[in-house]
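lol ok so funny story. i was supposed to be doing the assay writeup but got distracted and ended up predicting the structure for this chain instead. priorities right. anyway since i did it might as well share w the group, maybe its usefull for someone
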Amino acid sequence: MNLRYITYPLLVLVLLLLKSCATNPVTGKKDFMLLSTQQEIAMGREADPDIVQFFGLYESPQLQRFIDQKGQEMVKISHRNELEYEFKIVDSPVINAFAVPGGYVYFTRGIMAHFNNEAEFAGVLGHEIGHIAARHSAKQYSKAMAAQLGLAVGSIASEKFRQFADVAQTGVGLLFLKFGRDAERQSDKLGVEYSTKIGYDAHEMAGFFNTLQRKQEQSGQESIPDFLSTHPNPQDRFKTVNQLATQWQKKLNITNPAENRDSYLRMIDGIVYGEDPRQGYVENNVFYHPVMKFQYPIPRGWNIQNTPQQVQMAPDNGEALMMLTLSGERTLEAAAEAVLKNYQLSLVESNKVNVNGFPAIVMVADQQQDQTIRTLTYVIEDDDRIYNFIGVTLLNNFSSYSSTFRATMGEFSRLTDRSKIDVEPARIRIKTVNQTGTLEDALKQLGAGNNQMNELAVLNGMELNDRVTQGMLIKVIEK
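and the output, tada:
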């Protein structure tokens, strides 16, 4: 290579690549790595509050104790037991588990609801600890840095308005650095190894992958956005994990590995299943929040994304966005100023108004990009809370959307209807089979409707014609 023809940036990159190799704790081989262990730990520590804020934590002391105990037990036999790991259950109905650099592992309540024994959980736990042990997130992040790629979280906002949908924190963005198939295969192997070493039957891990595949086929790809999207072919994966489980049991001379079905099912009795209406729900094009006791209409045909951090609404064409967030300020005036400052907006007009009994400030303001973006903001005071309700579109489209913005924000009102306030989520209940027969027979005897049968079969990790015996525990869904 003739160095005279290497540009300065390229030379810097070459030197960076030469110096940025680290030994992989799992393979013992050299990996391209721009993050030191301390930087990796710092990144995870910084990401954790963003993740918790974005999803919220699921409150279950019993389940939290369980994942802490099993997590720390598995950490001891992992390839990176020097890290301080944290294990958390986040309040999301999506079936997923994920890990970020530095030792942070998260399970959704959705995936906890779909496990049918401790061994299934242990296999997935080992898979996620495996991602950390093999430094997969750190490697992906290093590649992204080298390629000068940004981090972004999924949002219903169009790319032009993504800056307003500020859930795209660096920490949350780490979740969306997908792993390649090789990394997933390696984590599967580590999941089998780790779960077997703490005494569980890793064949159950393979069985749970079938449950995930059935759920995906039943509900569509969106129900499992990350866990299967980059993974190996499910049938190949099932076969490989089963083979590895047999090999590790033979290698460790384990003849009676644990499954612990009944103890796990009793532990998740009462877990929230599906969307939790107490966090806000839509009914007949009206958004209700039974805890904060407010409501407002949703424009017909608009999509909605509700998280603990904010509510977003947008039409399919991506030409507009509305967001509702809580302000951290104590007065209307301070909250209005903060909106202008945080989004770098130039005020066009501002008025104090009353919105269905709530003091409010209504502002029109612009932001200069390649095209001018115009915003309509309602800053609404509700006792000790202040809400920022922001509508965003291009200046050229503002006349088309301003009436829609006002029709939604201007109808923000107090929720007083007890039938809307006293809603309860669906929950999983653990029931005892009354007599030997098929799963379908048992579910019918327990009062399940025909429209629930396929969903309950997947939830129980069984087929409807599978045999169940008297005294066996199974899941049903109740409100």
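Residues 426 and 479 are 4 Å apart (CA to CA). The mean pLDDT is 86.
back to the writeup now i swear
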